[in-house]
Amino acid sequence: MEVVRRVFEEEAYADRALVRAVTGLDARDRALAQRLAYGTVQRARTLDHALETLGGRAVSRLDAPVLAALRLGAYQLGYAQGIPRHAAVNESVELVRAARLERAVPFANAVLRRVADGIRGLLENLPESTAGEAALRHSYPDWVAETWWRELGPGEALALMRAQNEAPETVVRRNRRRRGEVEGRPDADLPDALHVDRVDEQAFARGLVWPQSRGSQLAGLAVGARAGERTLDLCAAPGGKATQLAGEVTAVEIHPGRARELREHLKRLGAVNVTVVEADGTALPPELTGFDRALVDAPCSGLGVLASRPDLRWRARPLAELQLRLLRAAAERVRPGGTVLYSVCTINREENEDIVEASGLEIEPLGEEWPQFRHPRRPEFLLTLPHVHRTSGFFVARLRA
Asked: Which one, of 15, 20, 17, lies nearest residue 6 by Cα?
């Protein structure tokens, strides 16, 4: 309840709100809390449709605590497995009472009982033959569904929407700088990727592993940084890709708090080759120049990581102008003939291929180097797709300055 309310009333990030909300819970209860909170945030649009259709009142007229409790109850009744109907209804009604809205208790009880009777059938019968219908059925903003419908085609778009409503795989990167035993199933394509059931908190604390999707690890590897080279990481925090890079690395971060966290992460991982510079990536200090390589893992709409960031779909927006400025800034600081790796965790031509083309930089093909992740329409680029590769969606391009 706290997570759902903070996301929709305070525009909080779900993962950060969850950390605070689950303090004191054991591992099993934390997992359940995350499943319910993330699922409710993720499916909010479809849940609201069910509440209005079955409950008979516009959700815009409800008090915020009442709406949050009804959404939680409807999610459990419509999507969650293993939660008895009476428990979902009663516990959600008690949330309304705990919010000191006694007058709304009978209403919430009546609505949830109607939802319990009808939500499964309603969800199963929602159409998905157009982008708008699919957006409602799978709980996405219209613009996201329309983008994928147009760029990928209806079948691929539907598969992608379904995949990003499922829990993502849990993958960590083995940190070769620290010695110690690490459990996990090696990945067939990426040398340091380990598939795990959960992140080992002790291994993380000791710097043995770093939680990082395979799509993200691929972007770091594609930089191609080698010993003896200088690499500029223009948007470095939290440090996952920076700590993959060999040679001398300059990690730029504009936000002081994130720069502080970045330094802490570098220390834990033993990445002594990385130096943090607090600066604006679009207005770099003059002494940062002559790099062999650069990495621009740019801020973006995040349409490739919606499975792990349930709130992001409701706040996402393309950042094409900023991305192009960052890419051009990096290209100016690379020596002639050096390379710039442009990556974004989104699936959207406006922030992917269009940025590369607008940059005017020469494309260095990656498809033959990583054929399993070759972009389906532009083989010179890489594109990981959640419904194809079962990892986060990343666009990767390597360019020559």
From this structure: 17
The ranges of the chain annotated as CATH 1.10.940.10 are 2-126
Q: What is the pLDDT of residues 148-206, one digit of tens each?
A: 999 999 999 999 999 999 999 999 999 999 999 999 999 999 999 999 999 999 999 99
pTM: 0.95
What is the rounded CA–CA span in Å between residue 357 and residue 131? 27
- List phi, psi (to 5°) of 318: -65, 145
Which residues in the chain come in under a pLDDT of 70? none
Q: For 250, list phi and psi in degrees, rounded to 5.
A: -110, 115
Q: Is 155 left (phi over 0), alpha (psi -120 to 50) or beta?
A: alpha
Distance CA 358, CA 1 (A): 44
Contact 145, 134 (CB under 8 A): yes
Which class for 55: exposed (0-12), middle (13-18), buried (19 or more C-beta within 10 A)? buried
Dump pLDDT digits (tens) for 254-303: 999 999 999 999 999 999 999 999 999 999 999 999 999 999 999 999 99
What are the C-alpha distances in Å from 238 to residues 3, 138, 316, 335?
Answer: 23, 31, 20, 26
Report the CATH fold assignment for 2-126. N-utilizing Substance Protein B Homolog; Chain A (1.10.940)
Catalytic residue ranges: 345
**Which residues make beta-bridge pairs with 399?**
340, 363
